[in-house]
């Protein structure tokens, strides 16, 4: 490795990037835009679920039951309809996601100490939201049951209502969210987005940079000079790694200062891990560019290799531990998962190298592997 | 005897095949230290492949290649030669970095080769001064003219002072003046630094400057040696006839001689060596030609003879069937053979292209400056000029791709600013860079353009057949355009441009990079179009021999038209201005050029000769012999100036005026 | 002139685009992958709490506490083991080896038996909000039910008849996706994303390629109008996308996942066509600002991300802030998603979705007209 030659190649590449103002601007605009759009737009708090009620009973008790939902911040009351047949079009047009159907004699049966069945309909199109909504609905119902039970006990045993309530619901839940006390989705999304953006944008930059050289024919300058394969690959990629590292700092700043996510970890460690990760994802771009011939193909293959895994296999939306063995296996194959742990660990959990060193090692190995494969694929004396 | 160490490159029984076609078959060559070795051959003959293999940037299948006594049998061994070689791939400035400045480009190449510090500064200054690029060090490469790009490419190739340089068609697409410049620089460098060079070219006049050369055809070397020996081996005599009525005379000559070529205002006849002067007099007399002369066969003639189908050359038979050999003696079509249009309105002489004070600015740069001219139906109008003179911009304005900054233009009677669809249906366009679809086959491309102009179904099939017969694309129908040799590609471009019976053709350097045979073929198609279909053609070219075919020529410089007349008139004007042309043939050109320049500042290289103009030729001859020395001069003849003389003289004159 | 000429031109250029597409092997592989394997893979992913790893701290070690802990089980949870101090628990959560701790206090059983209420703590990893939300939802549900059960059990011997206890049974019924199977949601959502990416990218790439290789000049001097140059690109790439979609629907969504399709497939495919044309127009519009594919790729990313995101694919409109809820109407994917889910999962017809159809149509033609206008303007 001749460091001067590497610098020569990097310098040239850097000048070329700088001269293409549009490209340079995009190289910085794209990552930040992605972070901002996702940070603001990807809202995972399940709140304001629009719902409708069919109340066949129309009694104070039924209204009391309904008011529990209307008063909750989780639900957004959209009105009552006369008949459940009218619900379907509302669901189909996505006007509501949830509906309650209170049967006739709701009050009478409860007063008489009988069980009543209330129906609820939930739009299952978004499974995560459906599951959460179902949880909320059941919790509401449980509270209501606790109260009527308490009421019943209080009357039956002649004890005060609050005492009866304790009897009816003897186990109380204390929820404590570690790392993110209010469970703000923006925090976790914004920090996880650092992972996503740094997964997608560096390969794009890189793939285009190398394929461009191949297409124009200037690659022959490299072929016929004494520059070694390694020098070329390193020199060529340093500017792209540099841009991406800068981007990682910008993204870090957005996440911390704009979205207010607490950064509790070790900045030095996080920076170091980001550099390793960026080298890794740049390597993906390099590999793609060495495999394909045309730029369109480079684009598509890059999307396939980066966007999909970083959404599905990174632990961003889906916990790795919840996956089928095959999914878990695939997750370990992509670098995204390791960096998700590092980002969330550094931002919200405040853990450092002690807990995360193995992730960094995995990323470094991954990066090394990618670069070695690229090194082997690149030939200064190709067959055609 | 040549000692082994003086052999720089030794190629032995080399073969190379790409996926499904053979590029090189059983080639053996030796290149000696200090020589300029030329590779000549039609497109697709395997020149580039051979050069890449020798440069160690392409692997091969069979045989051995030794460079500097190192066997290039692996990537590792190929690495060992790379500090000692310089390679410039094909394509004008394609290996340079468009957004970087001249200096940044040079610096990059230097650093890549570990040349730095004072050494770099010294070499850079020397090479920049020599190529006169020193004033443009800050200019981005993409804003250089073609000639300057080529010189920059040369600097970048030479910056690490290699012992062997490999230049793949360095002068393709470069105008005659820059070409001359380029060769002067190259010769000087090689002379002083004892460099060995392998150069390929499509210009056969340049081939005269090679110490030795090899003709390649169909992946094989079909002849090699030094130019003199090759010429001496030419089996026939060449007789040149000057004529005004080319078509008529050609037809008559063809009935007597099997091989006749029309070139500009001249016709070359290949006759058997055995033929006597008397019988020649008789034959030409019968045809009605009184003046003819025997001339020295050019390398082009030698080349043509080597690959001419039907000749007795045994080497040829081996190649047959693999490559569709370009047929040399294209019959110029007899009248009425290709009457695609039932009735051409009788409007010969009607003006179809008009430009009045056309101007186009790009920012503060004026690419085309107040240009006015007219082109009539049935006329070939040639635009000549150095790279960057504004020819392409002018054509783009006339075809409606660019809008003019000021001025007016009319094509087929309509204003170019509002060039309606009816107008665009009547024009055809071949752009400078190949602008057809590389990933489509020949027939698919033609079918597409037929469809665009509303020709479909059976009519399209008939027309495609007609056009491909006309342009000689038979046999290539199913080939992908990107796999075609350059010459065939340009024919395809022409085929697609004429598929809809256009009345006006705009051809922007259609023959750039096409080998001589391909170019002849191309022009015979054009003369057919003009002769039979009364098409008007506006064409640009860097080949002055082609310019001779034009009815009228406009010489552009710095965005302006500086001369506009017929070829004959242009030559006559040159004579009137600066006198008669003397062609000086010397033993060592490098030696005589200096002294000659001291008496005739306009003396310049033409192939292996020097051209000099003098108002009194006899006195000039004496003066030359006196100044240079009789021993150095082989021969001084006076000749009619060619268009190349016109071009070189006019442009250098203008450049000189600008400098002062 | 006239219709025939139009048709011939359209046909010739469309054939050309398809031929060019067919010559790029890597591209075909990538597209095929996106429409088949990728869809299939996404169907094997579950956004659902599935065997989430959890730990417990049981200071009581009683029958009651063990009963409660045993209720945390498959499919939602998986007990990884016991810890004895909070520090130990936090360290496991730090390392991500567990995402939930249930902490049962001392005297749990004793307090319950003596009719005192007790607090049980759930400590949840909140760093990933989705997982955090699901964990707390299911965790609370399990404890809540246990609470009611134990409350009733303890009082049981005071009561006369079991059925006399009043209680509201809530029967949640999840429509369209009864078991909240992700393989209904994710493959379809993935397909819609793939359609978006292809629809944006392919025509844009085809257009900028003409510029990069200079072939556009040949088209500009021909009598083609900008629309005639653009429409075939849209046409051919729409065809590619449509074929991909069909393969995906019949092969993967219906074939492998056996997702019942409620509505009319013809209506769905027409929507796909309309949608692809709309995003193609956007893609072509993008391509007019760029010189090369690198720039197209970057710009498409900038545009595609918001389009995908603001569509309700990940976040339904009702959860968005008001300004976003307004902006969402500019995303063609919003209409497309609504329509696709409507047709495929809910069986909605044109009479319900015509407004969306109209929105998509307006957006599409707007982008297209603007693109055609820019297309000619960029030269000269």
Topology of this structure?
The complex is a heterotrimer of chains A (384), B (660) and C (380).
Chain A: H1 3-19, H2 21-41, E1 49-55, H3 60-70, E2 75-80, H4 87-92, E3 98-102, H5 106-111, E4 115-123, H6 127-157, H7 161-168, E5 171-178, H8 185-216, H9 219-223, H10 229-258, H11 267-291, H12 295-312, H13 325-333, H14 336-349, H15 353-377
Parallel strand pairs in A: 1-2, 1-3
Antiparallel strand pairs in A: 3-4
Helix pairs in contact in A: 1-10, 2-8, 2-10, 6-7, 8-10, 8-11, 8-12, 8-14, 10-11, 11-12, 11-14, 11-15, 14-15
Chain B: E1 7-18, E2 21-32, E3 36-40, H1 47-54, E4 62-67, E5 70-71, H2 75-81, E6 85-88, H3 102-112, H4 117-131, H5 146-158, E7 164-167, H6 176-193, E8 196-200, H7 204-207, E9 212-217, E10 220-225, H8 227-232, E11 236-242, H9 246-254, E12 259-263, E13 266-272, H10 277-287, E14 292-295, H11 299-307, H12 314-319, E15 351-362, E16 365-376, E17 380-385, H13 391-398, E18 406-411, E19 414-415, H14 421-425, E20 427-430, H15 442-452, H16 457-471, H17 486-498, E21 504-508, H18 516-533, E22 536-540, H19 544-547, E23 552-557, E24 560-565, H20 567-578, E25 580-586, H21 589-599, E26 604-606, E27 609-614, H22 617-628, E28 633-639, H23 643-659
Parallel strand pairs in B: 3-8, 3-9, 6-7, 7-8, 17-22, 17-23, 20-21, 21-22
Antiparallel strand pairs in B: 1-2, 1-4, 4-5, 9-10, 11-13, 11-14, 12-13, 15-16, 15-18, 18-19, 23-24, 25-27, 25-28, 26-27
Chain C: H1 3-22, H2 25-35, H3 37-43, E1 52-58, H4 63-70, E2 77-82, H5 86-94, E3 100-104, H6 108-113, E4 118-125, H7 129-156, E5 167-175, H8 182-213, H9 215-220, H10 226-256, H11 265-287, H12 293-309, H13 322-327, H14 332-344, H15 350-377
Parallel strand pairs in C: 1-2, 1-3
Antiparallel strand pairs in C: 3-4
Helix pairs in contact in C: 1-10, 3-8, 8-10, 8-11, 8-12, 8-14, 10-11, 11-14, 11-15, 14-15
């Amino acid at each position: 490795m001749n460091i001067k030659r590497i610098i020569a190649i990097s310098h040239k590449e850097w000048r070329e990037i700088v001269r293409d103002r549009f490209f340079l601007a995009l190289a910085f605009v794209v990552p930040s835009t992605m972070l901002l759009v996702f940070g603001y737009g990807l809202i995972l708090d399940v709140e304001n679920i629009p719902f409708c009620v069919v109340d066949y009973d129309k009694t104070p008790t039924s209204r009391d039951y309904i008011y529990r939902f209307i008063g909750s911040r989780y639900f957004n009351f959209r009105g009552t309809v006369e008949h459940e047949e009218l619900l379907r079009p509302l669901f189909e047009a996505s006007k509501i996601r949830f509906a309650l159907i209170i049967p006739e004699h709701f009050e009478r049966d409860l007063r008489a100490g009988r069980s009543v069945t209330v129906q609820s309909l939930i739009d299952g199109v978004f499974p995560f939201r459906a599951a959460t909504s179902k949880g909320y609905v059941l919790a509401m119902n449980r509270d209501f049951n606790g109260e009527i039970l308490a009421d019943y006990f209080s009357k039956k045993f002649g004890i005060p209502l609050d005492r009866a309530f304790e009897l009816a619901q003897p186990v109380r839940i204390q929820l404590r969210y570690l790392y993110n006390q209010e469970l703000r989705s923006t925090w976790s999304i914004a920090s996880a987005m650092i992972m996503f953006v740094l997964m997608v944008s560096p390969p794009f930059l890189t793939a285009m940079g190398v394929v461009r050289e191949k297409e124009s024919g200037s690659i022959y300058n490299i072929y016929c000079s004494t520059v070694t394969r390694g020098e070329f690959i390193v020199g060529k990629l340093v500017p792209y790694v540099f841009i991406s590292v800068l981007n990682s700092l910008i993204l870090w700043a957005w996440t911390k200062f704009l979205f207010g996510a607490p950064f509790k970890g070790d900045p030095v460690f996080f920076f170091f891990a980001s550099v390793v990760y960026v080298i890794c994802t740049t390597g993906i771009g390099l590999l793609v560019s060495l495999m394909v011939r045309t730029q369109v193909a480079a684009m598509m293959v890059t999307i396939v290799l980066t966007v999909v895994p970083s959404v599905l296999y990174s632990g961003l939306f889906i916990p790795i531990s919840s996956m089928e063995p095959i999914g878990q296996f695939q997750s370990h194959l992509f670098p995204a998962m390791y960096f998700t742990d590092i980002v969330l660990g550094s931002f919200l959990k405040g853990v450092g190298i002690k807990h995360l060193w193995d992730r960094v090692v995995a990323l470094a190995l991954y990066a090394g592997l990618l670069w070695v494969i690229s090194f082997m694929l690149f030939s200064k004396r190709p067959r055609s | 005897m040549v000692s082994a160490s003086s052999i720089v490159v030794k190629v032995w029984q080399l073969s190379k095949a790409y996926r499904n076609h053979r590029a090189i078959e059983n080639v053996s060559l030796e290149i000696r230290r200090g020589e300029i070795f030329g590779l000549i051959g039609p497109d697709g003959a395997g020149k580039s492949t051979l050069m890449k293999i020798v440069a160690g940037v392409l692997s091969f299948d069979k045989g051995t290649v030794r460079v500097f006594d190192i066997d290039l049998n692996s990537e590792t061994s190929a690495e060992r030669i790379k500090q000692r070689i310089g390679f410039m791939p094909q394509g004008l400035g394609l290996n340079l970095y468009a957004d970087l400045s001249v200096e940044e480009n040079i610096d990059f190449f230097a650093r890549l080769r570990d040349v730095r510090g004072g050494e770099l500064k010294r070499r850079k200054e020397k090479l920049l001064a020599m190529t006169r690029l020193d004033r443009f060090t800050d200019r981005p490469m993409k804003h250089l003219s073609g000639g300057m790009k080529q010189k920059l490419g040369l600097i970048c190739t030479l910056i690490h002072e290699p012992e062997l340089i490999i230049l793949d068609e360095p002068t393709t697409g470069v105008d005659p003046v820059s070409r001359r410049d380029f060769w002067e620089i190259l010769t000087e460098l090689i002379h002083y630094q004892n460099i060995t060079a392998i150069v390929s070219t499509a210009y056969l006049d340049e081939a005269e400057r090679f110490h030795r050369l090899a003709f390649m055809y169909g992946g094989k070397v079909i002849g090699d040696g030094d130019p003199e020996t090759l010429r001496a081996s030419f089996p026939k005599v060449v007789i040149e006839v000057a004529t005004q009525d080319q078509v008529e005379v050609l037809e008559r000559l063809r009935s007597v001689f099997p091989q006749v070529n029309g070139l500009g205002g001249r016709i070359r006849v290949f006759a058997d060596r055995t033929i006597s002067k008397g019988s020649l007099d008789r034959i030409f007399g019968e045809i009605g030609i009184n003046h003819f002369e025997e001339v020295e066969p050019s390398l082009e003639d030698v080349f043509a003879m080597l690959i001419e189908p039907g000749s007795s050359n045994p080497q040829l038979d081996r190649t047959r069937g693999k490559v569709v050999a370009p047929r040399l003696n294209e019959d110029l079509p007899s009248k009425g053979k290709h009457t695609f249009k039932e009735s051409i309105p009788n409007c010969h002489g009607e003006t179809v292209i008009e430009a009045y004070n056309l101007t186009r600015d790009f920012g503060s740069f004026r690419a085309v400056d107040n240009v006015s001219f007219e082109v009539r139906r049935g006329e070939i109008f040639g635009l000549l000029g150095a790279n960057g003179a504004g020819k392409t911009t002018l054509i783009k304005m006339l075809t409606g791709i660019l809008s003019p900054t000021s001025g007016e233009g009319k094509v087929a009677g309509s204003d170019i600013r509002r060039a309606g669809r009816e107008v665009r249906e009547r024009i055809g366009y071949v752009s400078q860079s190949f602008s057809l679809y590389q990933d489509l086959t020949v027939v698919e491309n033609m079918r597409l353009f037929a469809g665009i102009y509303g020709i479909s179904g059976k009519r399209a099939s008939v027309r495609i057949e007609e056009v491909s017969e006309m342009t000689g694309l038979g046999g290539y129908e199913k080939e992908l355009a990107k796999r075609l040799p350059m010459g065939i590609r340009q024919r395809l471009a022409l085929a697609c441009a004429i598929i809809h019976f256009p009345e006006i053709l705009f051809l922007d350097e259609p023959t750039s990079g096409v080998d001589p045979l391909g170019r002849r073929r191309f022009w015979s198609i054009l003369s057919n179009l003009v002769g039979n279909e009364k098409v008007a053609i506006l064409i640009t070219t860097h080949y002055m021999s082609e310019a001779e075919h034009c009815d009228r020529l406009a010489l552009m410089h710095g965005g302006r038209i500086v001369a506009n007349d017929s070829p004959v008139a242009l030559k006559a004007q040159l004579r009137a201005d600066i006198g008669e042309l003397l062609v000086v043939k010397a033993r060592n050109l490098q030696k005589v050029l200096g002294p000659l320049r001291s008496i005739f500042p306009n003396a310049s290289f033409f192939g292996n000769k020097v051209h000099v103009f003098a108002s009194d030729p006899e006195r000039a001859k004496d003066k030359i012999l006196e100044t240079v020395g009789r021993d150095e001069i082989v021969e001084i003849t006076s000749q009619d100036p060619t268009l190349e003389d016109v071009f070189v003289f006019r442009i250098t004159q203008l450049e000189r005026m600008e400098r002062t | 002139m006239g219709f025939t000429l139009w048709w011939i031109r359209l046909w010739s250029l469309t054939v050309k685009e398809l031929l060019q597409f067919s010559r790029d092997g890597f591209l075909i592989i990538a597209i095929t992958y996106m429409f088949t394997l990728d869809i299939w893979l996404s169907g094997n992913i579950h956004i659902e709490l599935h065997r989430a790893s959890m730990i417990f701290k049981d200071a009581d070690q009683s029958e009651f506490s063990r009963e409660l802990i045993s209720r945390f089980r498959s499919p939602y949870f998986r007990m990884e083991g016991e810890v004895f101090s909070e520090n130990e628990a936090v360290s496991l959560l730090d390392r991500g080896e567990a995402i939930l701790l249930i902490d049962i206090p001392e005297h749990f059983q004793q307090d319950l038996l003596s009719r005192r209420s007790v607090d049980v703590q759930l400590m949840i990893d909140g760093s990933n909000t989705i997982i955090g939300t699901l964990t707390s939802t299911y965790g609370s549900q399990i404890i809540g039910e246990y609470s009611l059960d134990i409350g009733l059990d303890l009082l049981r011997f005071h009561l006369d008849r079991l059925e006399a206890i009043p209680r509201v049974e809530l029967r949640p019924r999840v429509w369209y996706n009864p078991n909240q199977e992700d393989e209904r949601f994710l493959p379809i959502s993935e397909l819609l994303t793939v359609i978006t990416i292809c629809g944006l990218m392919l025509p844009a790439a085809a257009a900028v390629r003409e510029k990069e290789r200079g072939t556009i000049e040949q088209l500009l001097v021909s009598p083609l109008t900008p629309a005639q140059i653009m429409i075939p690109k849209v046409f051919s790439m729409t065809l590619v996308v449509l074929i991909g979609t069909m393969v995906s629907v019949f092969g993967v969504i219906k074939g492998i996942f056996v997702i019942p399709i409620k509505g009319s497939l013809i209506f769905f495919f027409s929507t796909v066509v309309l949608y692809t044309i709309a995003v193609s127009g956007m893609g072509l519009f993008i391509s007019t600002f760029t010189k090369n594919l690198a720039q197209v790729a970057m710009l498409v990313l900038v545009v595609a991300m918001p389009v995908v995101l603001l569509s309700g694919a990940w976040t339904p409109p009702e959860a968005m802030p008001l300004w976003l809820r307004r902006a969402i109407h500019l995303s063609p994917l919003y209409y497309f998603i609504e329509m696709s889910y409507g047709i495929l999962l809910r069986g909605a017809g044109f009479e319900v979705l015509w407004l969306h159809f109209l929105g998509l149509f307006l957006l599409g033609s707007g982008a297209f007209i603007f693109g055609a206008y820019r297309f000619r303007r960029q030269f000269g």
